[in-house]
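Q: What would this chain look like folded?
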Amino acid sequence: MNTLLTADLVGLDKIINSDPVAITFFIGYMAMFASAVFFIVERGSVDGKWKTSLLVSALITGIAAVHYYYMRDFYLETGQSPTAFRYVDWTLTVPLMCVEFYLLTKPFGAKGATLFKLIVASLVMLVTGYIGETSGIDNNILWGVFSTLGYLYIVYEVFAGDVAKLAKTSDSPALGRSMFLLKIFITLGWSIYPIGYMVLPGNLLSGAFEVSSIDLFYNLADAINKIGFGLVIYTVAISETAKSRSAAA
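A: My prediction, written as structure tokens:
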């Protein structure tokens, strides 16, 4: 009992003293939980072919909210980065974000092979990244290269691969606008993750800034990327639903 009380007091002290990392764990948890509820509720506002997309958006933010709940407690008790928790979260949510690309373009002709390639690339990116973070300084750069290759393939698909071609040939202005926003998320929003990896000791940007502060950037990037992805999907779903209902009227 005394141990639990001490841990609670330490965690409370971090919040009272405005530890920015602790505060962003709380913000990330609440923001993603609220977003999951929003996407579930809004499934009733869109046509059937878009309901799965909003369900996946709810799963992404819901899974992240659960992990942030535990990551928050881990950080408050130890003051250390919850690396394993993060990679479990990312291993579940990043492939789901790739599923969103497929679902977004499926009404316009996307094939299952595209989904398979995106998921494989995301898993390569995450698994090799985790090995690099946990296998010691000497292996950081090697595994980081493999991880980056997975990331670059996703970038290629979005900018010039099947996903990009389907978006370009579709007759949906909403899809075009959404793909533009998703490209920004992929290139700018996701860039924080390889940058965070490269500031690890022994890596290319080692010493550029404090490793301890990377949790702050990860927390903010996670919330922006995951919630932002969902809102982009929601915008397309609402726009396409309104267009189809207007045409049917």
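Confidence is low (pLDDT under 50) at residues 1-9.
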